[in-house]
Design brief:
37% of the residues lie in helices and 22% in strands. It has helices at residues 17-30, 55-81, 99-108, 127-137, 166-174, 176-179, 204-212, 229-239, 262-270; strands at residues 5-10, 33-42, 86-95, 112-116, 142-145, 157-161, 184-190, 217-222, 244-248, 275-278. Helix 3 (99-108) crosses helix 4 and helix 8 (229-239) packs parallel to helix 9 (262-270). 43% of the residues are buried.
Length: 279
């Protein structure tokens, strides 16, 4: 697998710039196609206006969304034109309740979706639904970049959060193009079960699989010394000078999986390095 088709979704300019820069850096390095979907978001809710509301009010929200889409598209095109990447960009308007459908459609036909972190200062309401739609409905891996990080082209030190779940395995398979190019991959296992087939060699079968792909890896077995697993992973990432974290994305609800689980949310709130997620 190779990342030949890259996608970012933009609904504004300032917070989306790091993700756009990361996409361009990867596109130039991998000779991939970079696509920017620039959406103006109508954030008014269906049924929000009282009965008999003037049609001009509804038209105003739509006009504002169109103006935002045009502004974001112009911003993206200006940066993309100055790059050496093959690229395309287009704009559109979506209601906030329906934005997931538009994102999922594009993500489904992309190898990797690159987005800003959905949590933090000045995030709009659509930031989390965009990430969720790309992963849970578009079934694409997502690379979430911090606001102040430098674009990565070849992460040399990668940390894998391994808990033997299908989600973690899916993320690892999707991240193989990064893993095979890394100088070192750390398989981090936190409090492995005392009973089970891998109790004497936690992470051993995964390291064997990765080694057969040419991945240089080590296994770090850590104790759960902090309440949140995400805090342990983030601290270990800092201590080991990690460039990227790879982990599975988990949902709260079996009825609606597109709600990021607590471990995933905590990781995205605290991580200072890019996080590669898949479900």
């Amino acid at each position: 697998m190779a990342y030949n088709s890259l996608l970012t979704v933009m609904t504004e300019t300032s917070l989306a710039k790091p993700a756009l820069a990361q996409m361009i850096a990867l596109a130039e390095t991998l000779d991939a196609h970079a696509e920017a979907l620039c959406l103006g978001v109508d954030r008014s809710q269906t049924g929000y206006y009282y009965a008999g509301a003037n049609a001009l009010v509804l038209q105003e929200t739509l006009s504002r969304a169109n103006a935002e889409a045009d502004e974001t598209l112009a911003f993206a095109e200006d940066i993309l034109r100055r790059s050496n990447a093959r690229w395309s960009a287009e704009s559109g308007v979506a209601q906030i309740a329906d934005i997931g459908r538009h994102v999922a459609r594009r993500a489904m036909f992309s190898d990797l979706v690159i987005l800003p972190r959905p949590y933090g200062k000045d995030r709009e309401a659509e930031a989390e639904p965009i990430v969720e739609a790309a992963m849970f409905e578009g079934h694409a891996p997502v690379l979430l970049v911090p606001d102040d990080g430098q674009p990565l082209t070849r992460p040399r030190n990668i940390l894998i959060g391994w808990n033997e779940s299908p989600e973690a395995m899916r993320a690892i398979r999707c991240a193989l193009p990064f893993l095979t190019q890394a100088d070192l991959v750390r398989i981090v296992v936190i409090d492995p079960p005392r009973h089970g087939p891998d109790r004497s060699d936690p992470g051993g079968m995964l390291s064997q699989l990765l080694a057969r792909h040419g991945v240089k890896c080590e296994i770090d077995v850590l104790s759960k010394t902090m309440t949140r697993v995400s805090d342990i992973l983030n601290r270990h990432a800092t201590d080991t000078d990690t460039d990227m974290i790879v982990m599975g994305a988990y949902g709260h609800s079996r009825f609606r999986e597109a709600i990021l689980g607590g471990a995933t949310r905590n990781m995205l709130e605290k991580s200072s390095v890019p996080v590669f997620l898949a479900h």
